[in-house]
TrEMBL record:
Cross-referenced HAMAP family: Adenylate_kinase_AK6
UniProt keyword Ribonucleoprotein, yes or no: no
Assembly and oligomerization: Interacts with small ribosomal subunit protein uS11. Not a structural component of 43S pre-ribosomes, but transiently interacts with them by binding to uS11.
One function term, GO molecular function aspect: ATP hydrolysis activity
Residue ranges, annotated region (NMPbind): 41-64
Keywords, in A-Z order: ATP-binding, Cytoplasm, Kinase, Nucleotide-binding, Nucleus, Ribosome biogenesis, rRNA processing, Transferase
Protein name: Adenylate kinase isoenzyme 6 homolog
Family matches, as InterPro entries: Adenyl_kinase_AK6, P-loop_NTPase
Top-level taxon of the source organism: Eukaryota
Function: Broad-specificity nucleoside monophosphate (NMP) kinase that catalyzes the reversible transfer of the terminal phosphate group between nucleoside triphosphates and monophosphates. Has also ATPase activity. Involved in the late cytoplasmic maturation steps of the 40S ribosomal particles, specifically 18S rRNA maturation. While NMP activity is not required for ribosome maturation, ATPase activity is. Associates transiently with small ribosomal subunit protein uS11. ATP hydrolysis breaks the interaction with uS11.
Amino acid sequence: MDGGGGGNRTRPNILVTGTPGTGKTTTCSLLADATQLRHVNVGDLVKTKNLHDGWDEEFECHIINEELVCDELEDMMEDGGVIVDYHGCDFFPERWFDRVVVLQTDNPILHDRLTSRGYMGPKLTNNIECEIFQVLLEEAMSSYPEDVVVATRSNCIEDISRNVAMLTEWVNDWKPVGS
């Protein structure tokens, strides 16, 4: 196993991250359809494969076991051609991703999306603050090389379409390192 990005992959790996409600799953589904890459929703994977350490009552979510998630994804990521969809990014190995996309949504829009999902109390406040303080962008910038990270608006369906088109073009132009 080499330490460099790309390794022996023939297709790129992409991480799509951002606060809950920024459109990650919609973006990833459309991108997977457009590129034939495999979409992995980490939240769903954690539930299906029990890759967690129980339930967090305050934030009403599973307490993800990062080590188990990474073990589960390792072989798939080495093969390449994967779009990972998750609202965190600092625990994935840097070598896995050729592109890290941070989706950003304006607060009033995000607030509406989250309340319509039933978010309230600390869970709602925490996620809105996360977006205000650009926590995920900072996490991405400190976890991956600057030229790999892209921050992009995700306020409406036009934004999502534009992001999918931009990423599809990037995937189609991608070449493995050293080819």
